[in-house]
Design brief:
By secondary structure, the protein is mainly β. The chain has helices at residues 2-20, 140-145, 175-180, 325-328, 367-371, 386-397, and strands spanning 28-35, 46-51, 56-61, 67-73, 76-83, 89-97, 103-104, 107-108, 117-121, 134-139, 196-199, 202-203, 224-232, 245-250, 258-266, 283-297, 301-323, 332-335, 346-349, 355-358, 362-365, 413-436, 443-457, 472-475, 478-489, 492-508, 516-519, 530-547, 550-561, 565-567, 574-577. 9% of the residues lie in helices and 42% in strands.
């Protein structure tokens, strides 16, 4: 009875656990059937799968139905060798096994002696005949040959069928745009933040913002061996999101030294003119780096490392809503509600004595007119607040003449467009170590570390000497992963991964300690700082067990995350002026509730 209770409790625990977690993997698998010329299965045939670069070798015998299965294989190029008594030796070379892509290689043997050999050379990756998952794998050659302007490997996701992609223009790459438009990266109708990205078997998703196509760790073109994007019908071992599943694999070292050195340069001379600026904005991009991999101990230990630096010195077209010269001279203009009540044109004098005219249907108030709103009250308006004009408006906006009509009302506010300088510095470091605990490679261990240091001052509020950026973005995300794969027997394989990823992001504003008088619809460059560090621990384990013609897979994925944050965005000392939603402080159309409303002026024709 006690045994029955324990068994029932264990079953309930297993069902509960498997109901809330999902296994995943960064490996691949190969299976097939060995047959004779008549198509009958050959039992007891010896099957050897070997990778000459990593010196990994797996062996097993076919089952009663001629079947063989290899699980938890590192992606790469293999040689498949099959021998059986009374049949010629079969060898298939250049067999490409791609990440998260179950492969099938059926072997037809011919009658002959063991000294005879039949060699087949694979020219294309084997097809997935195992499951119904849909997606395209990309190997190292494809990744390097496909042009990528941003050099962000997950951007290749947009090449898949069913993926919505709105583009990669600079304005679309901004945080403001991504927060407002979440269509980019939506896969088959799923939300764009539901895609799951894994690097070497552990999650590297942007949990803070949920942006698609984004790994929080650096993923360079020269560090990625291959990856696969699964868009539909993925299995539980391929990820835990409802969108696309992106699995990336970092390169490993081999018995041969290999490396690269590179630099990519883009210059303003190849850029077209900006429509608004009427000239090509500054565009200088340099991406440079080096990679090297090789053996530490032949056939047992290997290393790979990659450094990539990015330097961008650019200008982007920016527009600000600024006061017009008449506003800075103490003149407020407005359109009459009933234009027939303002049939005549006229003019008013500003603080400087300059005359400003207005057209029929409009009206203007100069300092003299504003001072007549309520001249007898101590709390009334005594005229234009020259102190505010001289202390803030004129020093801030007085040197800029509006040149843009797409923003503002054209009367009191108007646009000023300029080429705003921006820059970005990034240093990315990626290292991977592989070690075979046994000479035959049945027990393997790897460690991978990655980090980046991003410093990205964005455009200033206005182009003045010594201007500070409105935002300075910094990203110091880093992470590591450890993986252990054990071939316990030809029919039992276990793969364990542990990953620690710390997403670290800061947005340094320019207004944390300043008091502001906010005028709505007027751009004032008010930005507050925020930062966060999001550490995530990720543990996964996958077990594959073959029993006769049946294969059982078990697994689990545990994630532990913390989300400490600091933000000044809701802690500030600000006064609100000229709001359109909080009468009676509006400029006009408040039905006389505001002392600033022009209808309170005795000379107002409206």
């Amino acid at each position: 009875m006690n045994r029955a209770k324990c068994l029932l409790f264990s079953i309930l625990v297993i069902l509960t656990v498997n109901g809330i977690v999902f296994p995943q993997t960064s490996s691949t698998s190969l299976q097939g059937t060995v047959t004779d010329p008549s198509g009958s299965a050959i039992a007891g045939a010896s099957v050897v799968l070997a990778n000459s670069e990593s010196k990994l070798e797996r062996t097993m015998e076919t089952g009663s139905q001629g079947e063989y299965r290899f699980f938890a294989l590192p992606p790469g190029t293999y040689t498949l060798t099959v021998t059986a008594k009374g049949f010629s030796r079969y060898q298939q070379t250049d067999l490409q096994l791609l990440v998260n892509t179950p492969a099938t290689a059926n072997v037809p043997l011919k009658v002959g002696s063991a000294s005879e050999s039949i060699t087949v050379t694979s020219e294309a990756p084997v097809l997935n005949l195992v499951d119904a998952s849909i997606g395209n794998p990309f190997n190292e050659t494809q990744i390097k040959q496909i042009p990528l302007d941003a050099r962000n490997v997950p951007d290749l996701l947009n090449l898949q069928a069913g993926v919505a992609y709105t583009g990669n223009r600079p304005d679309m790459d901004s945080q403001t745009y991504k927060d407002q438009d979440t269509r980019s990266g939506a896969v088959n109708g799923a939300r764009s933040d539901q895609s799951n990205i894994t690097l070497d078997g552990v999650d590297v998703n942007d949990l803070a913002n949920g942006y698609a196509f984004t790994s929080v760790l650096p993923v360079t073109l020269d560090s990625v061996q291959e990856f696969r994007v699964t868009t539909t019908n993925y299995n539980a071992d391929q990820g835990d999101g409802s969108g696309a599943q992106v699995a990336l694999i970092t390169k490993s070292g081999t018995n041969n030294f290999h490396g690269s050195a590179y630099e990519y340069h883009r210059n303003t001379y190849t850029s077209a003119s900006d429509y608004f600026l009427k000239a090509p904005p500054k565009l200088i991009r340099n991406t440079f780096g080096a990679s090297v991999g090789g053996p530490i101990q032949k056939d047992r230990a290997f290393f790979f490392g990659n450094y990539e630096g990015t330097r961008r010195r650019e200008a982007t077209s920016a527009v600000r809503n600024i006061p017009t010269p008449s506003f800075l001279d103490g003149v407020i203009q407005y359109q009459c509600v009933d234009t027939t009540a303002c049939p005549a044109s006229g003019s008013v004098l500003g603080l400087s004595g300059k005359s400003y005219s207005y057209q029929p249907g409009y009206y203007a108030l100069g300092p003299n007119e504003i001072g007549q709103f309520d001249p007898g009250s101590p709390q009334g308006i005594q005229g234009v607040n020259t102190a505010l004009l001289n202390s803030y408006f004129i020093p801030t906006f007085g040197n800029f003449v509006p040149n843009e009509t797409t923003v503002g009302d054209g009367l009191n506010y108007s646009g000023y467009r300029f080429a705003a300088p921006i820059k970005l510095n990034n240093n990315a470091f990626i290292v991977k170590l592989d070690y075979h605990l046994t000479a035959d490679g049945k027990h393997t261990l790897f460690w991978r570390g990655a980090m980046q240091n991003v410093f990205n001052p964005e455009d200033p509020f206005l182009p003045v000497s010594g201007a500070t950026p409105e935002h300075t973005l910094s990203d110091h995300s880093k992470g590591m992963a450890v993986g252990y794969t054990a071939v316990v027997s030809p029919t039992l394989v276990n793969s364990f991964h542990y990953g620690f990823t710390r997403q670290s992001f800061g947005d340094v504003g320019n207004s944390d300690t300043k008091g502001w008088n906010v005028f709505y619809t007027l751009d004032q460059g008010i930005n507050y700082s925020r930062n966060f560090q999001l550490p995530v621990h990720n543990l996964t384990d996958d077990v594959s067990w073959t029993k006769g013609s049946h294969t059982f897979q078990f697994g689990g994925n545990v994630g532990i995350a913390r989300d400490p944050r600091l933000s000044y965005q809701h802690s500030w000392n600000t006064a609100l002026g000229a709001t359109f939603w909080m009468a009676p402080v509006g400029f006009s159309n408040t039905l006389g509730q505001s002392p600033l409303d022009p209808v309170n002026y005795k000379g107002d024709p409206n």
